[in-house]
Automatic annotation (TrEMBL):
Gene giving rise to this polypeptide: LOC114855663
BP term (GO), one: morphogenesis of an epithelium
Pfam short name (any one): Cadherin
Single GO MF descriptor: beta-catenin binding
Record membrane topology: Single-pass type I membrane protein
The protein, known as: Cadherin-22
Length: 804
């Protein structure tokens, strides 16, 4: 097989057979042609084999891209050695672009490209060739693959695919500092010629920046880039292919370079002096004013702190973290009279100083803050301001001077001052102060043992303006004098065995004294010479404000005397020396052989002449308390008993029945049936029976009427009338049960209800004087003997009596 093509200036001859095989680097296995092998077998016999060279040998075809001719572009030719030019073989191709981009002449095997090819879109096409018998369409050779490569031309310019670019570099960076890298891509074939070899250059901004033409790295060209002057630059970078030669294509992009800040500018105060005013009465910590220093830098490079270089005795400065302002405030109280103008030197210093730029100068600035103090009317000032401590003897007389307090008006006028004691701190009015001089004197006798210190508050008030006042605390210490005798610490008691030996230590006693001498206590102990027990016991002063009691003899007998009262005299060191006598109670007890006490007799033999006054007072107080308790108990019992009797007398709610009935007098006990009142809530219902209603609950005058001819109708009327009463009472009972305000026990309820009618009609005598009355009062005679007189009054008169 051979392949070739010719296009304009280009000419290609494809080698066949062995040459084609070598171009691919391999040789395919030989085959035996069917027809050729058959002919040879006839000539040489069945045992001879002819080795035939393979007929399909392929190479790659080349076609130039971007062909603009009007005729199809000739690509190449395929041919097989089986083709003898008789037109019996048909050539076909298949694969990428077969039949559309590439067509083949079936008879000659010529291949043409019918479309314009672009290597940047597709660099090669893989196809398969087939030789077939034109008549039977049987394949004469196995299908073989070949490649058509699109040959590159310089038709693509470089492109910056990641543009536009944004980079940054610190200001004042040295020359050659790398900023960033830009990269341009060329779609042409980098393996063919110089179409894809790109070089870089700066079109705009080359004064400040350069670019490496091979790598595309942008670098600084100057060392004095200043962010405060210009904080960004716009560059135009160009990329050219063909290694920058004439005729090469190019592309460009925009590069924005931001200049980042460094701390190369110190803080600066806009003014060299600021003036503020403040009242001398302003409290400590009150802001006086604010000043601020500016910094041309940005971000944390503008962070600064402030400090006072001069005048920091009365003022302090702090930094506002949000506004970066210096806040000048009062550190100590101001005094207009002492100094009315203060100059404070405030310095601003950068917090973050870059050591690379220290040689540029100091990164700080100073300004003067002048503070004018205005005068106000101030209250008096005590000297000393924190108060005074005074001392006075406990036995000082009334009117004695304790001490002096001083205060003055600090204003220029220096108004006179009056002094007063705050009586809430001296409610007992023990002290008095002179309003003019401030001298404190005693108004009452002192007692150190009651209160060793007195803390009072003294007020100083301007005489012309009483709203101006100040306070000072005065602590008064009461100095002790020896005015309390020493006493035994407790009522001591001791026990000794009957067989105690002479000189045996019985007990150790100590003493208390309410006084507090500055030199300390020193007590002396002794037994009164008149004490009858001196012959039995001795006292030993231990020289440490304690004393020991020892036996002086042996052989105590508790049956003869089981208790001894030993008086002990105690004297302090004064001055003046005071003394008191205490009593030690000593019990004589029976002991075992080891000295352990077994029992003591309670019978006492009083050795002292009399009880002490304290003991007598305590005994009397106890007896008085017992008497009061007994009287209180008896009073409570009598009060409870009287209260209980009153409750029993008044608790008649279940027995009292109130009703309005005149009756027949005190001797009449049969006029009314009491069972009707005792059973107010149990009225029987009217029953229609042969025997008639139960008349036990009806008044006797109704029962008496049952004997007459109209008794039956009268009973029915009375039963109906009581039925009405019963319903009314039941309703009232329900209302009382539902009322939450009534007491929680049975109570007597009184009601007034007349009913609808009465068989007796009205008993009123209002109409009895009327001569025209037609009422018949004959029924009064049926009511019994008690109404006989009344019936006589209303009985119809005889004509004879009227005539007379």
């Amino acid at each position: 097989m051979a392949s070739s093509r010719t296009t304009g200036a280009w000419s290609l001859l494809a080698a066949l057979s062995l040459l084609g095989c070598c171009s691919f680097g391999r040789c395919e296995a030989s085959r035996t042609s069917g027809s050729a092998s058959a002919g040879h077998r006839q000539d040489q016999g069945p045992s001879s084999l002819e080795r035939v060279k393979r007929g399909w040998v392929w190479n790659q075809f080349f076609v130039v891209e971007e062909y603009t001719g009007t005729e199809p572009l000739y690509v190449g030719k395929i041919h097989t050695d089986s083709d003898e030019g008789e037109g019996n073989i048909k050539y076909t191709i298949s694969g990428e672009g077969a039949g559309s981009i590439f067509i083949i002449d079936e008879l000659t095997g010529d291949i043409h490209a019918t479309e314009r090819l672009d290597r940047e879109e597709k660099a090669f096409y893989t196809l398969r060739a087939q030789a077939r018998d034109r008549h039977s369409n049987d394949p004469l050779e196995p299908e073989s693959e070949f490649v058509i490569k699109v040959q590159d031309i310089n038709d693509s310019e470089p492109k910056f695919l990641e543009g536009p670019y944004i980079g940054s570099v610190a200001e004042l960076s040295p020359i050659g500092t790398s900023v960033m890298k830009v990269t341009a891509s060329d779609a042409d074939d980098p393996t063919y010629g110089s179409s894809a070899r790109v070089v870089y250059s700066v079109l705009d901004g080359e004064r400040f920046f350069t670019v490496d033409k091979h790598t595309g790295i942008i670098m600084t060209a100057v060392a004095d880039l200043d962010r405060e002057t210009q904080d960004r630059y716009e560059l135009v970078v160009k990329a050219t292919d063909m290694a920058g030669q004439m005729g090469g294509l190019s592309g460009s992009t925009t590069v924005t370079i931001v200049i980042t800040d460094v701390n190369d500018n110190p803080p600066r105060f806009p003014q060299k002096m600021y003036q503020f005013s403040v009242s001398e009465g302003a409290a400590v910590g009150t802001p006086v004013g604010r000043v601020i220093a500016t910094d041309a830098d940005m971000g944390e490079n503008t962070d600064m702190s402030y400090l006072i270089k001069e005048g920091g005795e009365l003022f302090k400065v702090t930094t506002d973290a949000e506004t970066q302002e210096a806040v000048v405030s009062i550190k100590k109280p101001l005094d207009f009279e002492s100094k009315n103008t203060h100059n404070v030197v405030v310095e601003a210093v950068n917090k973050h100083v870059d050591p690379r730029f220290v040689d540029l100068g100091t990164f700080s600035d100073q300004t003067i803050v002048r503070v004018s103090v205005s005068d106000i009317d101030e209250p008096p000032m005590f000297h000393p301001a924190e108060g005074a401590i005074m001392e006075v003897q406990e036995d000082a007389k009334v009117g004695a001077l304790v001490g002096m307090v001083t205060a003055r008006d600090p204003d220029v006028k220096n108004n006179p001052v009056k002094f007063y004691i705050d009586r809430t701190t001296d409610q007992e009015m023990i002290f008095h102060i002179d309003q003019d001089s401030g001298g404190i004197t005693l108004s009452k006798i002192l007692d150190r043992e009651t209160a060793g210190w007195h803390n009072i508050t003294v007020k100083a008030v301007e005489a012309d303006n009483r709203t101006m006042e100040s306070h000072a605390s005065v602590s008064i210490r009461i100095l002790d004098v020896n005015d309390n005798p020493p006493e035994l610490a407790t009522p001591y008691e001791a026990s000794i065995c009957e067989d105690a030996k002479p000189g045996q230590l019985i007990h150790t006693i100590s003493v208390v004294d309410r006084d507090e001498p500055q030199s300390g206590h020193r007590f002396y102990f002794a037994l009164p010479p008149e004490a009858p027990s001196n012959q039995h016991f001795t006292l030993w002063d231990l020289k440490d404000n304690t004393a020991g009691i020892r036996t002086q003899r042996s052989g105590f007998n508790r049956h003869e005397q089981n208790v001894y009262f030993l008086p002990i005299l105690v004297v302090d060191s004064g001055p003046p020396s005071l003394s008191s006598t205490g009593t030690l109670t000593i019990h004589v007890c029976g002991c075992d052989t080891e000295g352990a006490i077994q029992s003591c007799n309670a019978t006492a033999y009083v050795m002292s002449a009399a009880l002490s006054p304290g003991a007598l007072i305590a005994l009397l107080v106890c007896m008085l308390i017992l008497i009061v308790l007994v009287l209180l108990i008896l009073t409570l019992k009598r009060h409870r008993k009287g209260q209980r009797m009153t409750e029993d007398e008044e608790d008649m709610r279940d027995n009292v029945i109130k009703y309005n009935d005149e009756g027949g007098g005190e001797q009449d006990t049969q006029a009314y049936d009491m069972s009707a009142l005792r059973n107010l809530y149990d009225f029987p219902e009217a029953k229609s029976s042969d025997s008639g209603p139960d008349i036990r609950s009806l008044p006797q005058w109704i029962q008496a009427g049952r004997g007459g001819g109209g008794a039956e109708s009268a009973a029915a009327a009375a039963a109906a009338d009581f039925s009405l009463f019963k319903g009314y009472i039941r309703k009232k009972v329900e209302q009382a049960d539902a009322d939450l305000s009534v007491p929680p026990y049975d109570s007597f309820q009184t009601y007034a209800f007349e009913g609808t009618s009465s068989p007796a009609l009205s008993l009123s005598s209002i109409h009895t004087l009327s001569t025209t009355s037609e009422q018949d009062f004959s029924y009064l005679s049926d009511w019994g003997p008690r109404f006989r007189q009344l019936a006589g009054y209303y009985a119809p008169g005889n004509p004879e009596e009227e005539g007379s």
